[in-house]
Amino acid sequence: MNYRIYPVYLGGRDVDISTIIFRHAPGEMMRMVIGAYVLQDENGEYIMIDTGAPSADEIRKKGYGLREMADSVEYIDAVRAIGVDPEKVKLIVLTHLHWDHAWNLQYFPNAEIVVQKRELAFALAPTPNARKSYALTKQIGGPNWVKALLQIRAIDGPAQLRDGLRVFPTPGHTPGSQTVVADTKDGLYAFPNDLYINMKNYSENIPTGSVNNVNEWYESHEKVRALGAKILLHHDPDSFKKKVIG
């Protein structure tokens, strides 16, 4: 089975390079975006890889000041423009449960949501420094994904989800992050979540500024490199230059 890939651009802004490159001296600005992906199989079925961030208004109200974007796009409008009927979506893969990857699930009432068991456990009781990333503050009001808890299937390790579509754990950014791998007519593509914020992390073999565990990051990085796949990221603007891939 070969998949067609639709990058979903949700907006961007310039951030300090220390956010992107581990232990880099601050002072230089780099572009960082927020995005997600839609896969379409040969039968026309759509599969979501992450479900984006809150609306621009919600981002402001919930206190994510560093993530406000001048050119913000609403996630549900963007996926509908591709041709997605949210109520017909049967599968969503969440690379991890941070607020900018696991929002908007209320639009997909009939989808099974696949997440790593380790990620689900950590998201419910994260370390204090990670609470805001998982939306666990009073101002934010809690994570959006909890509303879809009955749809979640927690998996433990690598899994074949569909013909030509699989996942495997790649901790480092979060304890339970996973990478999605899909076959396309243009070859193998990998979606390594926020293991890399920018392709510099991948090409220069250096963690991100938001790394959770450096040792796990390097182990995961070697697994991704061994795939020999083309890489698409959720925060690198270059990953969103094409409207359709494959």
Query: How helical, in percent, are the residues?
Result: 10-25%
Strand order of the largest sheet: 1-2-3-4-5-6
Specify the number of helices.
5
What is the chain-wise order of helices and strands?
EEEHHEEHEEEEEHHE
- Provide the β-strand percentage band: 25-35%
Sequence stretches where pLDDT stays below 50 over 5 or more residues: none
> Number of DSSP strands?
11
Q: Which structural class best describes the helix and strand composition?
A: alpha/beta
What is the arithmetic mean of pLDDT? Answer: 94
Shape: globular
CATH topology of the domain at 4-161 and 234-240: Metallo-beta-lactamase, Chain A
How would you explain this protein's 3D organization?
The mean pLDDT is 94. This protein is globular. Strand 8 (165-169) and strand 9 (178-184) form a beta hairpin. The protein has a domain at 4-161 and 234-240: Ribonuclease Z/Hydroxyacylglutathione hydrolase-like (Metallo-beta-lactamase, Chain A, 4-Layer Sandwich), CATH 3.60.15.10. The strands form two sheets. Strands 1-2-3-4-5-6 form a six-stranded mixed beta sheet. A five-stranded mixed beta sheet has the order 7-8-9-10-11, covered by helices on one side. The chain contains five helices and eleven strands; from the N terminus they run E-E-E-H-H-E-E-H-E-E-E-E-E-H-H-E. The chain is of the alpha/beta class and 246 residues long.
